[in-house]
Amino acid sequence: MAAKSKKKPAAKKKPASAKPRAAKAAKADKQRGAAGTAPKRVAAILAKLDEAYPNATCELKHENAFQLLISTILSAQCTDVRVNQVAETLYKKYPNPEAFAYATPSELEQEIRPTGFFRNKTKSVIGASKAIIETFGGQVPRTMEEILTLPGVARKTGNVVLGTAYGIASGIVVDTHVQRLSNRLDLTRNEDPKKIEQDLIQIIPREKWIQFSHQIIWHGRRVCQARKPKCVECNLESLCYSKDKTV
Ligand code: SF4
Fold first, then answer.
1. pTM metric for this prediction
2. Residue 15's Cα: distance from chain center in Å?
3. CB neighbours of 22 closer than 8 A, spacing ≥ 6?
4. What would the pLDDT profile of 14-61 be if each residue is shown by its tens digit?
5. What is the sign of the dihedral through the CA atoms of 77, 78, 84 and 85?
6. At what angle do helices 39-52 and 21-32 cross, to 10 degrees?
7. CA 63–ligand 1 middle distance (angstroms)
8. Which of 29, 70, 148, 241 has the greatest number of CB atoms lying within 10 Å of its CB?
9. What is the pLDDT of residues 168-177, one digit of tens each?
């Protein structure tokens, strides 16, 4: 009688992974050594940001593009809260570009002193106001090329003003929060803001550029803070494999 062949017990079926596909794609990207920029993963991150911050917007108080420009110049190395405090009295005394353009520098320096770097900021504010009057007919220009000609204005300020005041998506704001979070979320492997912006505009749909900047800044301020990110509270946690994670 032929011996009965011993059948191996059927291998146990692995339970279906709870991880979303996007997270798997990201893991695969990571293993390949590429940034986690698979379109599905990026779409999942954008959806989570929409879920958490549907109404994210610029936190610098302003009534027009010019005020936003001045507040953004003042916000370098300073919190929005501090800038808003200073701006409240500042815009009553200096209601338009003419008022700033012909301000007494030493007075303006003292008025904006609480925002830090007040000498350079005074030069930028007065210089930008003069250029707006002399070159742009009193209006903050509407293109990145033109806005970058204003003293003290680099791409970050240009993107804030064009995006928030005019709804023009000319790029993505890369401030300290966007810089940190883009790396933590593995949307870039660059440290230089210009390169980060180039990386982000390749993977984020243009219609999301303005809102994405606000949402990432909000997330960086509220949850994914520099020193101790609150990963337990983070709705992006399942998509994040940053070495800075605290869970
Ligand atoms: S899981 Fe943590 S590190 Fe990752 S995005 Fe959220 S807060 Fe930041």
1. 0.85
2. 39
3. 38, 40, 41, 43, 44, 45, 239
4. 444 445 555 665 555 555 456 799 999 999 999 999 999 999 999 999
5. negative
6. 130
7. 34
8. 70
9. 999 999 999 9
